[in-house]
Amino acid sequence: MTDPLDGRELFRRYPGNPVLTARDWPHMVNAVFNPAAVAVQGETWLFVRVEDRTGLSHLTLARSRDGYSNWTVERDRSLMPDTGSWVERWGVEDPRITVIDGRYHICYTGYSSSGPLVCLARTDDFRTFERLGVVQVPENKDAALFPRRIGDRWAMLHRPVSTVGHLQAHIWISWSDDLRYWGDPTPLIEARSGGWWDANKVGLGPPPLETSEGWLVLYHGVRLTASGSLYRLGLALLELEQPTHVIARGDEWVFGPCAPYEVAGDVPDVVFPCGWLLGDDGDTLRMYYGAADSTVAVATASLSDLLDHLAGHGGAQTGRARSRR
Ligand code: BMA
Predict the structure, then answer these.
(1) Sorted alphabetically, which CDD domains does this protein's record hold (predicted)?
(2) Residue 5 included in any domain
């Protein structure tokens, strides 16, 4: 498929997109999208949100040697919702994986009968899962752990929703001694207002990526238009040892729906990444994203280009989380 903007955007779409569709699944499902990503022994493992034809979602592993083709879908490596429980009654969605002490820690949305909340589970093999339970109460989603303690505590980014006045959905940071109990919640990346591309609602994409300049954050901003919500992506940089400080926040979006598989699907005009992987060269980033809530696609970018871009376009700070520069 052609991409009219390729060559000018920071992220370049893989020409073979989408890399995974419902047709690749061994059984009948409606859609596969919003995958977490981890590199395991040279392979790319995606933990994919699978929406079956009940409308509810579960998570299933798909593996590829090159991260682009020849995917093996492992149906027996799935996190199925505990639909008998209140917490996951309507499914599990949108995982983000952080490797801590060699174990895969998965923050995912539990679709509870009181709304979306954040659950944490960990696994060594994606066959059995240790559920640590609910770590953020509703409404809360788009959560991921930092991969190491900062100071002496664990940190998590997440996105609570407030309906005071009108919808307000900002990215917050919370802290924990043991990964189980979370406190000290602080607003971090505030949705802007008015005509901005990321007005009123933002949410974390993949887990924060540690770079020499700071923690790189990719987030989605949602613009409400006459024809629905438009999901685009922007960048921010957090101070390494004090991530409550936003060093920079991009003023422009860096990726938005454009290709046919992004603008048409179950939910048109959505790009929604939950995982990214840094290549062995230390610079090539592969971003895995759900396209239009229907398929999985991948785009690549140069990490140094992203950091350069932020340095040049990071002027517009709003709200509580301001740059110290
Ligand atoms: C968000 C999440 C995502 C979804 C997106 C667009 O609120 O529910 O799972 O991809 O909306 O529909």
Answers:
(1) GH130
(2) no
CATH number of the CATH domain containing 298: 2.115.10.20
pLDDT tens digits, one per residue of 149-195: 999 999 999 999 987 767 889 999 999 999 999 999 999 999 999 99
Determine, yes or no, domain membership for 8.
no
SS3 state of residue 162: strand
Report which secondary-structure segment, H or E, holds 68. Answer: none
- CA 212–ligand 1 middle distance (angstroms): 31
Q: Is residue 106 part of a domain?
A: yes
- Backbone phi and psi for residue 307, each to the nearest 5 degrees, phi listed first: -65, -40
Q: Which domain holds residue 269?
A: 16-312
Closest CA to ligand 1's atom 1: 272
**Under DSSP, is residue 74 helix (H, G, I), strand (E, B) or coil?**
strand
Q: Output the six-digit token pair for 243.
A: 């991530």
Count of domains observed in the chain: 1
Instruction: Give residue 117 CA to ligand 1 midpoint distance, Å.
Output: 13
318 pLDDT band (50/70/90 cuts)? very low
- Token pair 């603008």 is found at 263
Per-residue model confidence (pLDDT) at position 5? 55
Q: Collect all residues with Cβ–Cβ distance below 8 Å to 85 and sequence separation of at least 6.
A: none
Instruction: Tell me if 58 is assigned to some domain.
Output: yes
| One-letter identity of residue 199 | A
Determine if residue 213 is left, alpha or beta; phi over 0 gives left, psi from -120 to 50 gives alpha, anything else beta.
alpha
DSSP 165: S
Q: How far is the CA of 289 from the centre of ligand 1 (A)?
A: 12
- Can you tell me the mean pLDDT for 48-61? 98
**What strands, in cross-sheet order, belong to the sheet with 271-278?**
12-13, 295-302, 284-291, 271-278
Q: Band the pLDDT of 324: cuts 50, 70, 90.
A: very low
- Using a 6 Å CB cutoff, which residues line ligand 1? 34, 93-94, 231, 267, 270, 272, 290, 293
